[in-house]
Design brief:
Blueprint: H1 8-15, E1 22-25, H2 32-38, E2 46-50, E3 66-69, H3 76-82, E4 88-94, H4 99-103, H5 129-135, H6 138-149, H7 154-167, H8 173-180, H9 189-204, H10 207-221, E5 222-232, H11 235-247, E6 255-256, E7 262-263, E8 266-267, H12 277-282, E9 290-296
Parallel strand pairs: 1-2, 1-4, 2-3, 4-5
Antiparallel strand pairs: 5-9, 6-7, 8-9
Helix pairs in contact: 6-7, 6-9, 10-11
Length: 297
């Protein structure tokens, strides 16, 4: 399968779907969440599905209520205005990478396969993992590994990458793994490689910037009472979502009016919802998933 949707019943419930409403799936992917939304819409309802990967188009349902938008969800406002939409009743985003991407060797997302250092969600983009690894300064490499992967050996790894590329460019996953091998504990390689590849992928695709831009635009796009639901897979993006839904800013600082009342664009903010043991058994990717949702005030 292209992708197994995580926390599907919980996220659909979180949206409190109105049959005649207008909804946005920011991360269409395999279409799992989109199909579940369409099942709850009547003939007046509309759904817009965003994805920057051209492969996702193959999963588009033949449904006149659905519009596929091949684009980054950071431009959600501009694209919706193009279609004449100014307000929506719900937004959902299942962040991270589809299972399809991890399983396609040539995409370069996984350390399980050899291949070119790519990691682009949009294969028309110019910036690749190859360019990052071979051009970022040692300080910048260390910073992104620590910031997006919380890698404790970030500075040592960055220094090793720079030393290696001075002899010859690092072009493949196998060549990068050779550099990383000395920093991995035997028997824990997968656990220690995952955050390194995660950090590189996040930087290549500017994922945190896209998330922040989408969240900021959601405030104006959502109608009063509209819902936003976001599924995050690591602490960095989950913290961004948590702070923004709670306070309307990314620092999580509560704003108050003249009378001391908390002012926020959202109400009924949920706590993190996690997958059941059964779902984790069926889909290991669900283990780290955290769903949060809120309602436009």
């Amino acid at each position: 399968m292209y992708h197994i949707p995580v926390l599907l019943p919980e996220s659909i419930e979180a949206l409190a779907i109105k049959p005649d409403g207008i909804y946005v799936d920011c991360t269409f992917g395999g279409g799992g969440h989109s199909r579940a939304i369409l099942d709850r819409l009547d003939h007046k309802g509309r759904l817009y599905g965003f994805d920057r990967d051209k492969d996702a188009r193959e999963n588009v349902p033949h449904d006149e209520r659905f519009t596929f938008v091949r684009g980054n969800f950071k431009h959600i406002g501009n694209f919706l205005r193009y279609y004449g939409i100014t307000h929506v009743d719900g937004i959902i985003a299942d962040l991270g990478v589809s299972s399809h991407h991890f399983d396609e060797a040539e995409r370069g997302f996984s350390y399980r396969f050899d291949g070119a250092l790519d990691m682009r969600m949009n294969r028309n983009a110019d910036f690749t993992a190859d360019k990052l690894i071979n051009n970022y300064s040692e300080d910048d490499l260390a910073d992104l590994l620590y910031r997006y992967g919380e890698v404790r050996t970030a500075r040592r790894i960055a220094a090793a990458i720079v030393r290696r590329r001075q002899a010859a460019p690092i072009r493949t996953i196998a060549e990068l793994l050779e550099v990383l091998k000395p920093f991995c504990t035997k028997g824990k390689e997968n656990k220690e490689l995952a955050p390194i590849f995660q950090a590189i992928r996040i930087e290549v695709n500017a994922e945190m910037d896209a998330l922040k831009m989408m969240l900021l635009q959601s405030v104006d796009l959502l109608s009063k009472g509209g819902r936003i639901a976001v599924i995050a897979y690591h602490s960095i993006e989950d913290r961004i979502v948590k702070n923004f839904l709670r306070s309307g800013n990314f620092e999580g600082t509560l704003q108050k009016d003249f009378y001391g009342n908390v002012v926020s664009p959202f109400v009924n903010v949920s706590k993190a919802i996690v997958s059941t043991a059964d779902e984790i058994t069926a889909n290991g990717r669900a283990r780290s998933a955290r769903l949060r949702f809120a309602e436009k005030s």
